[in-house]
Structure formats: structure tokens, C-alpha cells
Amino acid sequence: MLNKTQIRYCLDRLEEMFPEADCELNHSNPFELLVAVVLSAQATDALVNKVTPQLFEKYKTPEDYVNVPLEELQQDIRRIGLFRNKAKNIQKLSQTLIEKHDGNVPSTKKELENLAGVGRKTANVVASVAFGEPAIAVDTHVERVSKRLGICRWKDSVLEVEKTLMRKVPVEEWSVTHHRMIFFGRYHCKAQRPNCEECPLLSLCREGQKRMKKKELK
To answer: Which residues are tagged catalytic?
Structure first.
């Protein structure tokens, strides 16, 4: 496990690599972000961004989603995996927004998690990106990077990873660290072919060092 000084080193190198890291889901308001994040479950941001331009042109308010036949909404997002369930959840959360929040997206994680299709990760993303609330949303990239670097343990659950990062990363850096870890995992420390050879964190990464030794033995 990395110590405090080593974690600080990692955070500083991530900042150098991805100083402008931010949410890559295209949106223009909290409601569009909420819908986009729901759609992104088990789907890439790139694919979601191909679907949402027409979607957001057609549906601008929660009322728009509620008033359309479910089958039509399913067709509008059918390119995205699990589109049937996602369409149902988008209609349900839209109805809840109308009935309980005057059509507005709530800003607290607790209220967000009460919406259909919104789990802890989605709530953290929306609270952080849309409302500036400090949060660390643990997706597959954040989990993989945290465990490979030794910030967290391999056996840790997603919730344990989140809590560990919240303890070890300064609160004012939670949100930006979340985005930088995503960029690092998406573009550098990939699941199948991590770029260990050119990694500035290799000296601290036991996982990377093991991979490099295996390559040398081939």
C-alpha cells in the first residue's frame, strides 16, 4: 500500500498528465447530465455522446420524457446497451423530478440516489459535475487504477475503494482526482494493454513492475 508521500506523488503526476481532465459526457444542464450518466452505465462515453445530440434536441424537459410512449424512447436510445431498462428508468426518474422536485434535478447525493436508475456512482458524478459538491465516483477505471497503484487493496469493494480514496485524497481534490484517474485509466493504464513502458508512476506501481518483468523474460 502506498504511503501519504507516495500518494501525493501520484496525484501530482496525474495532474501533469491530465491538467484539464473533466467529464466527457456532453451536456448543457444538470438534467442532460443526469440522463447521460444513466445512459453511460455499461456503455462508453463516446457512444453516449453519439446518441445524446438527437435525444437532447427531441427531449428538453422531464415532461418530454414522461409524455412519450416508452417504445418510442427505447427506439431513440436502442444503440446503447440495456436500452429497455434505461428508457424505463429515465421515464421513472423524470416523473419523480416532476412530482417531488418541481422538474429540477436535486443537488444532494441522497436525493439523487432516490431516483430510478441512479446509484451511488451516478449520484456522485451528478453532484460533483453539476453542483460542485466534492465527490469521488468509482467507475471501472478509478477502481482499476487505485488497485494497480496500491492506493487500495485488490479485495476492496467499490464502496471500500471510494471510502479509502476519500480518506487519502484531500477533499478539495476529490472531484478532479476522480476525473484524472478516469483519464489515466481510459487512455494510459488501460485494462488490457496498459502503457507501463512510458508510465511516470512505474516506480511506485508493483503491478506495472510485474508486467515489465514478464515482458523481459519473453
So the answer is: 121, 139
